[in-house]
Design brief:
This protein has 696 residues and is α/β, with parallel strands linked by helices. It has 22 helices and 22 strands. The strands form four sheets. A seven-stranded mixed beta sheet has the order 6-7-4-3-2-5-8, with no helix packed on it. Strands 12-13-11-14-15-10-16 form a seven-stranded parallel beta sheet, sandwiched between helices. A six-stranded parallel beta sheet has the order 17-22-21-18-20-19, with helices on both faces. Helix 8 crosses helix 10 and helix 18 runs antiparallel to helix 19. It is globular. The chain starts with a helix and ends in a 10-residue tail after the last helix.
């Protein structure tokens, strides 16, 4: 005889086709939605709800609000016009008058209405002379004694061939059969302490809430659970990375600090000093540092990274600096050559663009410990790269890498410390999710002398004025960028292409100046040659794509025109603008949007013009575009959130993070039997994405 839990598992895993009202054909349709078992039905939540709480007599109807009216069908008329279009009108009489339902181009609905039939129309009424009418109302057809449905009616995502009423009926059947067997992942005392509905009540209310309060309680239960599972996964990952691994102890002494600071011809900012102090505290521990360093464009993150690297070198360890592109790797190399010109730090570059002979030489230097600082792309994590004594890994532009790539650089015997950097200010919500297993250091101040950038959103008739100003600055000796979103012209997209812009400017507004062309498809050597020519002033204007978004440091370049800026995210625009605020002259950035600018795009661009604060822009971008698009979080191996909305549910996220950290601090492996179901969820959902070891 089955134990009760075995019976429950069997019922919840029963194929959906055996549910009442399903059968093989509907089961095939449900499979398209990812629904194959009774349990899948229970956890297939509505995408929205139709409000059936406001029932009115016709006399008391108001425009613009969803209301429901009960009545009797008095007239049905379907007219078809010569062009094939049709209008169906159904008039109902109820308390207080007459209401007309109107459907366009749905003549087949005519058969569903009979004079004398009891119905409920739900929708937003509007006045049509003396009458009230509703366009495409939702209809309930009532039997003689049947009461109309009230409350909030669930609306599910569907597939062709499946209607809302059918899916609602299937959900009701699944609740009846499966609900008693759903186990709660939370112990009762934990639920009560955190004001969470029991799972069975929450499931009933998420599907068929009697009112808005019940729905909110059910939704909060599932949002909290989803975010807690994520935060537990991040806390466990962090615990595993630090508890079971040893890293070199790299303490800073007064003498080492003095030697490092002597290499820099300037004082560090308070923000840089604070970040250095936090990093030094981590490096002095025998467990791997896991820290994110982010700040605004030009806040001096590279200097902080250089300090950490020099501290590692002072203790006889190597540092690896990994970047997403070869252009950025070479730019970092040039920056460190300049910063470390008076030091004895041995520096090498390892990228995919090296010849086999050059690569072999560099690999031999790394393995022999003859390279203190190794700068490179993902070429650094290939199997033939063997470090002699790796103490610190710095990953730049962390959001361009997948979660699991963070720990790809291994050391023999000891694990290195990790410092990940982002030149893009990160919205606070993403620092708790995408980077939730890291401590965070934030640099908010800019180095003294940093010039502000004047930003303009230009209408088409201002182009001539802008290019006159652009030419004037070039004659004064400045340089500039012209950025476009695409390389080649396209029939499908009405965008200014790189080729168009270059040809138009070279034969028009900027024909008297030296122009260069730069994009991501060029061979590495060609990119390098172009950047060298731009740095030395041989090229005055670089016509380019967003390939110059990060790492390009040409202080004399103070001008930037961006074509079709609506095609870029705010974070990307902010990075681009950061290229023209790097010297002693003020910068100027002008945006030329396309003709079909949407309202949302205009809001983004107006926010960009209004502020140069990258942190403020990051929050605006997050609110307008959501997390998926900003850093491509969907490509980072994180399963998408099903219920939680990171913009709306920030307060719950903070609560779930705090609770997860407390749980893992007390029970790192969730070994207590009370967490068994929660632990199973964590491993099932995030075990692979976060490379979580199976814990006892």
């Amino acid at each position: 005889m089955d134990r009760p839990e075995e019976t429950g598992v069997r019922i919840l895993n029963r194929p959906v086709q055996y549910l009442k009202g399903v059968g093989p054909q509907r089961a095939e349709l449900l499979a398209r939605l990812g629904i194959t078992t009774v349990k899948d039905v229970l956890f297939y939540f509505p995408r929205d709800y139709f409000d059936l709480t406001d029932y009115r007599e016709i006399t008391f109807l108001e425009e613009g609000k969803v209301q429901s009216v009960e009545g009797v069908v008095a007239a049905v008329e379907c007219r078809t016009f010569p062009n094939g279009r049709s209008v169906l009108t159904v008039g109902i009489t109820g308390k207080g008058g007459f209401l007309r339902g109107v459907w366009f181009n749905q003549p087949y609905l005519r058969e569903q209405f009979q004079v004398g039939q009891r119905v409920v129309f739900s929708g937003k009424p509007r006045r049509a002379g003396l009458l009230w009418e509703m366009f495409h109302p939702m209809v309930q057809r009532l039997g003689e004694e049947e009461q109309p449905q009230r409350g909030l009616l669930p609306l599910y995502s569907l597939t062709q061939g499946l209607e809302q009423w059918e899916l609602r009926r299937i959900v009701r059947a699944a609740l009846e059969v499966g609900l008693p067997w759903v186990e709660d992942v939370f112990p009762e005392d934990y639920r009560q302490k955190h004001a969470l509905l029991p799972i069975q009540e929450a499931l009933r209310f998420i599907h068929f809430p009697p009112d808005a309060t019940s729905l909110e309680k059910a939704r909060r239960r599932f949002v909290y659970q989803e975010l807690l599972v994520l935060q537990l996964a991040l806390a466990i990952r962090r615990c595993q990375q630090q508890s079971f691994r040893k890293a070199p102890v790299l303490r800073v002494t007064r003498e080492i600090d003095k030697r490092i600071r002597r290499l820099f011809p300037f004082e560090f900012t308070p923000g840089q000093n604070q970040a250095i102090a936090e990093i030094c505290e981590d490096l002095a521990k025998p467990v791997p540092m896991l820290r994110l360093l982010h700040g605004d464009v030009g806040s001096g993150k590279t200097v902080v990274a250089a300090y950490a690297m020099l501290l590692a070198v002072a203790h006889g360890y190597q540092t690896a600096l990994m970047t997403p592109t070869e252009v950025l790797a070479r730019q970092h190399m040039a920056t460190f050559e300049r910063l470390l010109a008076h030091s004895r730090v041995r520096r090498v570059l390892l990228t995919g663009g090296l010849s086999p002979r050059e690569r072999a030489t560099v690999l031999a230097q790394i393995a022999a410990g003859e390279a203190d600082l190794v700068i490179g792309t993902q070429a650094l994590i290939q199997e033939d790269v063997q470090f002699h004594r790796l103490g610190l890994v710095i990953i730049d532009e962390q959001h361009k890498f997948g979660v699991r790539q963070r720990a790809a650089l291994k050391a023999s015997g000891e694990d290195p410390h990790y410092l990940v950097m982002s030149a893009t200010p990160i919205p606070r919500t993403l620092t708790l999710t995408l980077f939730g297993d890291l401590d965070v250091s934030t640099i908010r101040d800019a180095p003294p002398g940093r010039q502000r950038v004047h930003t303009f959103l230009a209408e088409p008739d201002k182009r001539g004025q802008w290019w006159e100003f652009f030419r004037e600055k070039l004659r004064e000796g400045r340089q500039g960028y012209v950025v476009t979103p695409v390389i080649e012209e396209s029939d499908e997209l009405d965008l200014v292409s790189l080729e168009q812009a270059f040809e138009s400017l070279a034969n028009g507004e900027l024909e008297a100046f030296r122009l260069g062309l730069m994009h991501g498809r060029l061979p590495a050597e060609q990119k390098q040659a172009i950047m060298h020519a731009f740095r030395t002033g041989e090229i005055q204007v670089l016509v380019c794509t967003s390939v110059i978004e990060v790492g390009i440091d040409v202080p004399n370049a103070t001008l930037m025109a961006i074509e079709n800026p609506e095609r870029f995210g705010l974070a990307q625009l902010h990075q681009l603008r950061g290229r023209v605020s790097r010297g002693r002259y003020p910068g100027y950035c002008c945006l030329f949007p396309g003709p079909d600018l949407s309202e949302q795009a205009r809001k983004r661009l107006e926010a960009f013009v209004r502020t140069t604060d990258g942190f403020e822009l990051a929050e605006v971008d997050f609110a307008l575009r959501g997390p998926g698009e900003i850093f491509g979080t969907r490509q980072h191996g994180f399963p998408p959130l099903r219920v939680a909305d990171l913009t709306r549910d920030y307060a719950v996220l903070v609560e779930a993070r705090r609770d997860a950290q407390q749980i893992v601090a007390a029970d790192p492996g969730l070994a207590n039997p009370q967490w068994a179901l929660l632990r199973r969820q964590v491993l099932a959902r995030y075990g692979k994405a976060l490379d979580l070891a199976e814990v006892a």
